[in-house]
Design goal:
The protein has 3 helices and 8 strands, in the order H-E-H-E-E-H-E-E-E-E-E. By secondary structure, it is an alpha+beta fold. It has 2 domains: about 35 residues; about 120 residues, Immunoglobulin-like (Sandwich), CATH 2.60.40. The chain has a 5-stranded mixed beta sheet. Strand 2 and strand 3 form a beta hairpin. The longest helix is centred in the N-terminal third of the chain and has 32 residues.
């Protein structure tokens, strides 16, 4: 069998790429990249429009609610109470103001409907004064007891770390840090 060649089938060449397959792959890649760019653009716009800039204006507190500004330490002398803390609770929907009664006679000024308690965000000027379910203490205050006001926080404007003005009794305290 010398000189005779055997016929073996030639190795099969890979099929040429399908034009439709490559085109659809490019379209999917282009669509994914476009989606990422659009999502980044939307996220950027949301951040730009929701970012609060510091306000140089006075808070929007009604003039009839104006009270003398005192330090946190002087609040007890003026209104008979000491602020223990202000915190955002309820998933951001509430502002919890806790205070301890030092002098019950002076603390009775907290019951005056003409001077309701309120918390004012120093950046936005938003006044938070609506009590949760209209709850307010009405009895006689006892010395050494801690009481609270829970305010609705519309739109979650007051946030942890913010500085607020607390209007309580016959005075207001500025720059109180929210927990």
């Amino acid at each position: 069998m010398s000189g005779q060649a055997t016929l073996e089938p030639a190795p099969a060449a890979p099929p040429p790429p399908r034009a439709g397959y490559l085109a659809s792959r490019r379209v999917r890649l282009f669509g994914a990249l476009t989606g990422i760019v659009v999502a980044a653009l939307v996220a950027s716009l949301v951040l730009v429009f929701t970012h609060r800039t510091p306000s140089r204006e006075a808070p929007n507190v009604p003039a009839s609610w104006a009270r003398p500004v005192v330090s946190a330490a002087s609040l007890a002398d003026r209104s008979g109470v000491k602020i223990t803390y202000v915190a955002v609770t309820g998933g951001g929907g509430l502002v919890d103001l806790r205070f301890q009664v030092i002098d019950p006679d002076k603390a009775n000024s907290l019951h005056d409907p003409a001077r309701p308690p309120a918390v004012v965000d120093e950046v936005s000027g938003l006044v938070v004064h609506d009590l949760l379910m209209s709850h307010s203490h009405t009895g006689v205050f006892k010395p050494g007891v801690t009481y609270y006001f829970v305010f609705n926080n519309p739109g979650n404007w007051v946030r942890r770390g913010a500085r607020v003005v607390v209007l309580l009794g016959d005075a207001q305290v500025e720059h109180v840090v929210v927990r």
